[in-house]
Each structure stands twice: as structure tokens, then as C-alpha cells.
């Protein structure tokens, strides 16, 4: 089997890359470990930056996002019983859209299928070969048969647990990591929205986030022990915790409903440098992870893909390799910016058991600052909407 670009992973990075390349006449094949139903139903991100919306619209997969997604012009920071608004649009001229990641995936898979794109679902034993030569390949098993896909370039979009990153020799790679001693307990709830905008709450009991999916389904999270178990949390205990952390002194309360999904995720910051070696390039979570507090993970994956698409188009249309050579350096500038913002927001909003009472009190001073100083609020808003110069 042969193609121009072999892509491992049908997450947002792999599927969007495949579709953007197709629109420029470049052929690709996507290999995915899981089944189509599984990727289309896994609950993950929800916040899309303007740049991500633009990229999806340019790829011709933005129609449902525009009609079903909700445009948000600000969010609220809750602390000390108060709620203060960050006016994203007023401060930056930009907004964000709340539209679930698995809906983005449904739109991308539908577009690939409609264009006769090649996606192999349920593959196993994926391995990468010959990246230091001009004829790399990917070996994999599909429906009990072994295959070898020959290509010009291999793109590893296989997320944090994939095989691609390890194909770059360890001696050439430097990994940077910070594992946080807390996680997020996430729920999906059948209820009307608690608020028109997202609420990020800092409380001595721990962080909480009120997000949304639609007028009838809400997404909420609260800080927990990453080793805790979902079974330890009855619905009553969850609501008591959310009320304690989010309800305000002005009488705003979290709206309860039927909880139909619960999960716990750990949190870490991670950056792998370099993101390329020979004919292998990494994009998205395969190369970097941010804690979800800044809502940056999916947006960074889309950013990598835009940079990589431009570089591959320059190679195929003009035989230029300068953009490919510069890929890692170009992508990492934005990754470190988003990594710093996500880390900062995580440290400001979560209960830090490793911090002194003095440092914990500084969190409130910082929240007062970003919610009263226009300059500080603008810096936060620019990072949140992704309007940062890198
Ligand atoms: P993905 O989505 O993990 O896709 C990788 C795909 O590769 C497949 N795979 C393999 N395929 C073939 N062979 C192998 N050996 C393979 N190994 C793995 C996997 O099955 C999978 O389908 O990576 P990608 O495309 O880089 O996309 C990254 C995003 O999914 C991720 O950054 C976001 O979900 C992070 N994130 C958020 N990002 C945002 O921008 N805004 C948010 O609001 C936001 N909220 C979140 C989040 C992540 C969360 N969790 C679960 C950590 C909220 C949460 C709770
Ligand atoms: C979500 O709705 O899943 C969500 C929103 C904001 C975040 C993280 C996740 O920062």
C-alpha cells in the first residue's frame, strides 16, 4: 500500500490534517486504534478558539459547529463568594465557541468518508520504520491481516499514549514534564444551564468548573484526588461539593439534574522537544499535554496541524523543505505560550496542598488583580481566546 502522507491516529489532529491535505490535492491514509463509534462518543474537550473555528470552517466542516455550538463572549471567575466576569470580546475582539470535541470528530469523519478518504479503524500493532530514509513506512494489523503502508512522510497524531513519540531516538529528544497532585472529576448532567457563561471557581475545598454542552446537557468538573474512584462519589455528595465551591454570596446556585456520566482524569503538563526526526513529525497530544484548565489541548493540536499542512503543501507544490525543517521550532513557540498559560491558570485556581498559607492567599490577590486591572484581564483574555503573538 502506498500514499503520500501516512497519519497515525484519528483524533482531531489526524483527521483535520488528512482533510486539509485532501483539499490541497495531497493523498493520505489514517490508521486508528479504536472503532469509529468509540472515537465519536468519547467525551473530552469543549472550548474552541476563534483560530480553531476558522480552521474547521476553512476545511468545510464548520456548518454544524456554527449552528449547534454556542458562541461565548466571556467567562466568570468565582472566588471568595464573588463572581467576576472576564469580557473576552470587549478585551480582545474575539470569542470562543463551546462545541464538544466528539461532535468535531463526527463532522471530520463524515467529511473524510464523503471525500472517499482512507481511514482504517481498529488497527493494532502499529510500528514505524525507515524514518531516516526517503521511504518510511508504517506496519499495522487490520482484520487479522498484516499491512505495510509506504509513504513520503509519517505524521504521529496518536495522542499521549501512542507509539510515534518513542520512534524519535531518546538521545535526540528532551521531555519536560510536571505532574499535578490533583485531577478533575467530570460529570455530564441533564439540566438547564447554571449560567450563560463558563464559571471557573477557586475555593478552599478545591477548584470547580461549570461548563455546558447545550440547553439541556451540562458539563461540570471539580478538583479531586487523581487516585479517587468514581464509585466513591454518590450524586448527593457531588452536588454538595459543587454547591459548596460554586454557589455565590449573591445567591447564584448550581442547577442540579440527572447525572449520566462520571469520570476522573489526571492532570499534567508535558512538552516533548523535538517534534520531528527525519521523515517523522508529531502533532497534538502526541507531542505535548496541557492541564485542561486553560482549554488549550484541542486548540494546540489544530494549530500544529495548520503549521504542518502549510509545510507539506510547500513541499508538494514547490519542492520546498524549509517549512518542514522549521516545523518543530515554529510549533513549539505557541506550545510553550499555551503551556505557560495553562500552568499559570491551574496554579491560580486549584487548591495547592503543597503550597504554604501565604502562597494560597496569593491566589486570591492574583484573582483580584486579573478581575480589576484591565491590563491583567486583557492578558488573560488574549491567552484564553488564543490571540497571542508567538
Ligand atoms: P487524541 O484526541 O488523543 O487522538 C489520538 C488518537 O490516536 C489513536 N491512537 C492510535 N492509533 C493507531 N495506532 C496507535 N498505536 C495509536 N495510539 C493511539 C487514539 O485512539 C486516538 O483516537 O489526540 P489529538 O488528535 O492530538 O487531540 C488532542 C485533544 O484530544 C486533547 O488535547 C483535548 O481533548 C484536551 N482537552 C481540551 N482541549 C481544548 O482545547 N479545550 C478543552 O476544553 C479541553 N478540555 C481536554 C479537556 C482533555 C480532557 N481530558 C480527557 C484529558 C477536558 C478534558 C477532561
Ligand atoms: C469543557 O467544557 O469540557 C471544558 C471547558 C473549559 C475547560 C476545560 C473543559 O477549561
From TrEMBL:
InterPro entries, per the entry: FAD-bd, FAD/NAD-bd_sf, RIFMO-like
Domain of life: Bacteria
Name of one Pfam family that matches: FAD_binding_3
GO molecular function, one term: FAD binding
Keyword Mitochondrion in record: no
Domain FAD-binding residue range list: 2-341
Keywords: FAD, Flavoprotein, Monooxygenase, Oxidoreductase
Coiled-coil region: none
PANTHER family membership: P-HYDROXYBENZOATE HYDROXYLASE, TRK SYSTEM POTASSIUM UPTAKE PROTEIN
NCBIfam families membership: PRK08243.1
Protein name (record): p-hydroxybenzoate 3-monooxygenase
Lineage of origin: Bacteria, Pseudomonadati, Pseudomonadota, Betaproteobacteria, Burkholderiales
Amino acid at each position: 500500500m502506498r500514499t503520500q502522507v501516512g497519519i497515525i491516529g484519528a483524533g482531531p489532529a489526524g483527521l483535520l490534517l488528512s482533510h486539509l491535505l485532501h483539499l490541497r490535492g495531497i493523498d493520505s491514509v489514517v490508521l486508528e486504534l479504536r472503532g469509529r463509534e468509540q472515537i465519536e462518543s468519547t467525551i473530552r474537550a469543549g472550548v474552541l478558539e476563534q483560530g480553531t473555528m476558522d480552521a474547521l470552517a476553512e476545511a468545510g466542516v464548520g456548518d454544524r459547529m456554527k449552528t449547534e455550538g454556542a458562541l461565548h463572549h466571556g467567562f466568570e471567575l468565582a472566588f471568595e463568594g464573588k463572581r467576576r466576569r472576564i469580557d473576552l470580546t470587549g478585551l480582545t475582539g474575539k470569542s470562543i465557541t463551546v462545541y464538544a470535541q466528539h461532535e468535531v470528530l463526527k463532522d471530520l469523519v463524515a467529511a473524510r468518508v464523503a471525500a472517499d478518504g482512507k481511514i482504517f479503524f481498529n488497527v493494532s500493532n502499529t510500528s514505524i520504520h525507515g524514518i531516516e530514509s526517503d521511504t518510511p513506512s508504517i506496519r499495522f494489523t487490520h482484520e487479522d491481516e498484516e499491512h505495510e503502508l509506504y509513504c513520503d512522510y509519517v505524521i504521529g497524531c496518536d495522542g499521549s499514549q501512542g507509539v510515534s513519540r518513542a520512534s524519535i531516538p531518546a538521545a535526540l529528544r528532551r521531555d519536560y514534564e510536571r505532574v499535578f497532585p490533583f485531577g478533575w472529576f467530570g460529570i455530564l448532567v441533564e439540566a438547564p444551564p447554571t449560567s450563560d457563561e463558563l464559571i471557573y471557581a477557586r475555593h478552599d475545598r478545591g477548584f470547580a468548573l461549570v461548563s455546558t454542552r447545550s440547553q439541556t446537557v451540562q458539563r461540570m468538573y471539580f478538583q479531586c484526588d487523581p487516585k479517587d474512584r468514581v464509585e466513591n462519589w454518590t450524586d448527593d455528595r457531588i452536588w454538595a461539593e459543587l454547591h459548596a465551591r460554586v454557589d455565590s454570596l449573591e445567591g447564584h446556585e448550581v442547577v442540579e439534574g440527572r447525572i449520566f456520566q462520571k469520570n476522573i482524569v489526571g492532570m499534567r503538563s508535558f512538552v516533548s522537544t523535538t517534534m520531528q526526526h527525519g521523515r517523522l513529525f508529531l502533532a497534538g497530544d502526541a507531542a505535548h499535554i496541557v492541564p485542561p484548565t486553560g482549554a488549550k489541548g484541542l486548540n494546540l493540536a489544530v494549530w500544529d496541524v495548520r503549521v504542518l499542512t502549510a509545510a507539506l503543501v510547500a513541499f508538494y507544490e514547490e519542492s520546498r523543505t524549509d517549512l518542514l525543517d522549521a516545523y518543530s521550532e515554529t510549533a513549539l513557540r505557541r506550545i510553550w505560550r499555551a503551556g505557560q498559560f495553562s500552568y499559570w491558570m491551574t496554579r491560580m485556581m486549584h487548591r495547592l496542598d503543597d503550597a504554604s498559607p501565604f502562597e494560597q492567599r496569593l491566589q486570591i490577590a492574583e484573582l483580584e488583580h486579573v478581575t480589576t486591572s484591565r491590563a491583567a484581564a486583557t492578558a488573560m483574555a488574549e491567552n484564553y481566546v488564543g490571540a497571542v503573538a508567538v
